[in-house]
Amino acid sequence: MSKSLLHRIAAVAAGALLALTGAAAVAGPAAAAGPQTTVAGAATCNPDKGEWLVSWTLTNSGETFARIDKLRTDPAPVPELANGYLIPRRAPSGTIGKVVLHQTLPGGTPSATVSFVGIWDDAKDTDNTATVTLGDCKPAETPCVEPAGATFHHDFAVGDGRATATVTLDEGVKLCHDEPVTLVTYFAPKPEFSLPQYAHDHETATLSNDNRSVALAADLPDCNAQVDLFFGGEDDIIDEITEGGPRYGDKKLGSNGGPGGRSKGPQGWYNGGGKGCQTPAVEPLSQCDGTVQLNLSNTGEISRYAVDFTVTAGDFTRTVTVKPGKAETVTVPAGSGTITISADGMADVTYDWKRPEDCEPPAVSVANDCETVTVTVTNPQGAVPAAATVTYGAESKQVTVAPGTSEAVTFPAGPDRVVTIAFPGLGIEPITAALGDTDCDNGGGSGGTPGTPTTSPTPGTPPTGGDGGGLPVTGAAAGAIAGGALALLIAGGVLFLLARRRRVTFTP
Predict the structure, then answer these.
(1) Which residues on adjacent β-strands are paired with residue 411?
(2) Are 180 and 233 within 8 A, CB to CB?
(3) Res. 473: pLDDT tops 60
(4) Element (H or E) spanning 393, and its range?
(5) Going by DSSP bridges, is the β-strand pair 263-264/152-159 parallel, antiparallel, or unpaired?
(6) Are 337 and 381 in contact (CB under 8 A)?
(7) Short-list 370, 504, 365, CA closest to 433
C-alpha cells in the first residue's frame, strides 16, 4: 500500500473520531437536562410508643407534575401515596418540586422500601427506589410504682337491676404489684344508708400492667339496696355490715382521700330501692266459734328483715314481729268486727268473719199439741251464737241461742201448716217444715202423740218423728205427693158417679 493511501485512511479515521466525539459531547448535556423524580427515606424511633416514624421525600425536577405509576411499598402502604399520585412541579424560581409523606411502623420492623416510576407527558423516569434500614425500637423502661403511687380512673352506674363499673390504670403508670378491685351489692332495710346489710352479689377483677382495664357487674336485690366499689379482693368483702362493724371507708373508689382517692370518677357507692326486703303475707281463716285465725308469714325469697304486723278489729289491737323465714299466728276474738292487718311493704288487708262450710249447723225440732206449735233451736257446742228468726203464719219471733244450748219459741196453733226457721247471720239456707195432718178433734196432735217433737238435724233436711211420721220439708217432693193425692181423690169421685148412674153394687 502506498504512503499516500495510508495518509488518506488515517485522515478519514481521525475525522470520524472527531465527529463521534462531538456528537457525544452534544448528546450528553441534552440527556442530563431531562426531568427527573427521586425518593429518599429517613426513620426516627419513638421510644414512648416503641414504633418507627418514617419520612419519605419525593422530588420532581420537571416543569409539569410527575404522575406516580407502578408503585411498590414494603412492608406496608404509605398513607396518601398511591398510583396516580402527583408530585409537585418545579417552581418558576427553579426550586425543585417536593413532598414529604409519613409512615408509622412497629418497632422491630427490619426495613421499609418505596419504589415507583415517574411519568410526564413526554418523559418517564424508571429509576426511583429507596430503602430505609430500621430494626429494634423499644419504649424507654418505665419504673414501677407502689400501690400508694398508682393512679386510676373509673365509671360507675346503677340501673336495670344491675350495678356496673369500669376501672382503668392511668396511661404511663407501671404497677409494682397487681391491684384487685371489687363491686358488691347488699340487701338494705331502707333506701338510704341503714343497718344491718347483707351481701347479695359481687364480682372481683385484678388490674395489672398487662390487664390495664377491667369491667365489673353485680345484680341488685329486688328491694332496697346498697352498692360499693372498692379496692380489694374477695377476702376483703364484708358479708354483713352491722352497727359498729367494719366498713369499706375510703377504700371506695371516688373517695376524697385514702386508697379510693387514687381513682378519679364518680362516687363508687349507691343507696336506693323501691320496697323493703321482706315478704309479708296474711292468710285469714274463719273458725266455727266466730274467731278468726290470722297466719302472718315472712318467708319470701327476699325476706332478710323482720316484719311488724299490726292487727286491729274494734277494740282489739295487737302488733306482732315476724322474723325472716318465720310465721306467727294471731287469733282475733269472735264478734270483733272487720279486721285490718298492716305491715311495711304490704297493702293493708281487711277481712270479715265468714262461717266455714264444714261447721255443724243448728238443729231444729217442732212440736204441735193442737193448742200450741213449739219450735226448739239447738246450737252445737263450739259454734257462734245463732240468731234465728222463726215464722209461723203471720207471726215471727227472734231468738238467739248460745253455743251448747237450746231455745224454744211457741205460737198458738192455727190453720197454717208451715214453719220457717231462718239464720240470717250464718249464711245458711232457712229450714221450712210442714206440720202435716192433725187429729186434734180426737185429742191427737200432728205427727202422732200430742206434744211429741219432730226434729230437723241439719238445715234443708226433712224433720223425722215418731210413729206418725215426721214433718215434711216443703218443696218439689211435697208438691208431688199433694198432686198424687189430688189425682186419686178425683178418680174416686168419678168412679162414685159412674156407680150411681149404673146402679153398680160394690161387694166388699
Answers:
(1) 373
(2) yes
(3) no
(4) none
(5) parallel
(6) no
(7) 365
